[in-house]
Amino acid sequence: MQSNDLRKAGLKVTTPRVKILDILAGSEGRHLSAEDIYRQLLEHAEDIGLATVYRVLTQFEAAGLVERHHFEGGTAVFELNQGEHHDHIVCMDCGRVEEFMDCGIEERQLDVAKRLGFDIAEHNLILYGHCKKPNCPNRPAVKRGPRDQEPGAGT
Amino acid sequence: MQSNDLRKAGLKVTTPRVKILDILAGSEGRHLSAEDIYRQLLEHAEDIGLATVYRVLTQFEAAGLVERHHFEGGTAVFELNQGEHHDHIVCMDCGRVEEFMDCGIEERQLDVAKRLGFDIAEHNLILYGHCKKPNCPNRPAVKRGPRDQEPGAGT
DNA sequence: ATGCCTGCAAAGCTTTTGCAGATGC
DNA sequence: GCATCTGCAAAAGCTTTGCAGGCAT
After folding, report:
1. Strands, E assignment, A28-65
2. Disulfide check for A129: which of A14, B8, B15, B118 has CB 3.0–4.6 Å away?
3. Strand, coil or helix: what is A95?
């Protein structure tokens, strides 16, 4: 029942919002771009505009329901806020994204911030590498540099 | 003598490239956007197009002469590659960017990657916080969320 | 002289915004 | 019924690209 989350966020319960929340919840663990979500909506024969997707995602972010990430590639991706903080590691071959949490890293970040005289508010850590999974095609999917992204990386 | 760096990178020594390298070298420690550089070129009465700035920066990045960073805000910033790796901490009030290196964090990143079965190729760590410097105006300069950036943050 | 470079302008991509109509409460 | 929300289309912002002329070697 996602409707309650919406209500709690002070947002009216509308079709676009519920559907988008559904899609995000159904892709738990994956990280979807606005376009990804828009495409899924179209597949579900929902008549929802891309602009609305962006608007809704922005509202969700403001409400703390989702997090926005900027992995390399110029496109933002969104994931449902699972309550507990984590960082990301991205496979540069297949685009797979895994999440992790390392207390040691977190602590040392605070140390560094203190050392430099900063009050740390948040942070952004992304590791880029090559996963050695057998089903990982060794062709670039996430790549640094000028926009360069494969559309169908995670069907 | 930056010309040698250019030659070594297989790039012809041209006015735009040298000037841009000069500007980057003259702003050591600062992080300039393409527009920042373009503006400085105009101030120096150099007749160089913004497109060229982008092209040159992209070439420099490919050649390993500069690094491109995406701090929050939708605009990329560039800094001269100083040879040794470091991460960044950004003040959300005044936009100041400081650099740091923490071996502990680096090590633990490798640990995490190994634990998850990744060969780590690179990473991206940015801490966001509030520097408590006396001359730090407590007004937002770098802010998360929808594009929202003050133009004149670092004359 | 030749081939890499540049400036200009136009296009491209993601994201945002304005407005009139639609919908939730 | 009223305020909020949505769809469409157009705009905005950053970045890239095409092309004809210019410059380094």
Report:
1. 32-33
2. B118
3. coil
Find all residues with CB under 8 Å of A39, minimum gap 6, and list them.
Answer: none
Protein CA A11 to sugar C1' C22 (Å): 17
Whether B78 and B58 have beta carbons less than 8 Å apart is answered as: no
User: Splitting chain B (155 residues) into consecutive groups of 10 residues, what average pLDDT does each group show?
Assistant: 84 95 90 95 93 97 93 89 90 88 96 94 93 72 41 36
How many helices and strands, by DSSP H and E, does chain A display?
5, 6
CA–CA separation, B100 vs B95, rounded Å?
16
Query: A126–B124: do the CB atoms touch at under 8 Å?
Result: yes
Distance between B57 CA and the closest CA of chain A, angstroms: 11
- What predicted TM-score, i.e. pTM, was given to this entire model? 0.82
Q: CATH class for domain A1-82?
A: mainly alpha
